[in-house]
């Protein structure tokens, strides 16, 4: 049980640090970027590009989305 808690805690910390590292303060732009990345991983590039363009429209300085 203790090992499971350590694993869950570790992964939750990684997720939090990944969100903080993105160069946007817009929660919606970060959300669009995250969903776009999921599409990218699955090879659905047109959908990913559309969402990235939406993220850029929300925050013009969001370098990761470019």
Termini separation comes to: 42 Å
Q: Characterize the overall form.
A: flat
Helix content: over 70%
Low-confidence stretches: none
Work out the helix count: 3
The amount of beta strand, in percent, is under 5%
From the alpha-carbon coordinates, what is the Rg to the nearest angstrom? 14 Å
Query: How many strands appear in the DSSP assignment?
Result: 0
**Biggest sheet statistics:** none
Given helix and strand content, the structural type is: mainly alpha
Along the chain, the helix and strand elements come as HHH
Overall mean pLDDT: 84
In words, what does this structure look like?
The chain has 66 residues and is an all-alpha fold. Helices cover 74% and strands 0% of the residues. It contains 3 helices and no strands. It has helices spanning 2-21, 27-41, 45-58. Helix 2 packs antiparallel against helix 3. The longest helix has 20 residues, at 2-21. The model has no long low-confidence stretch (mean pLDDT 84).
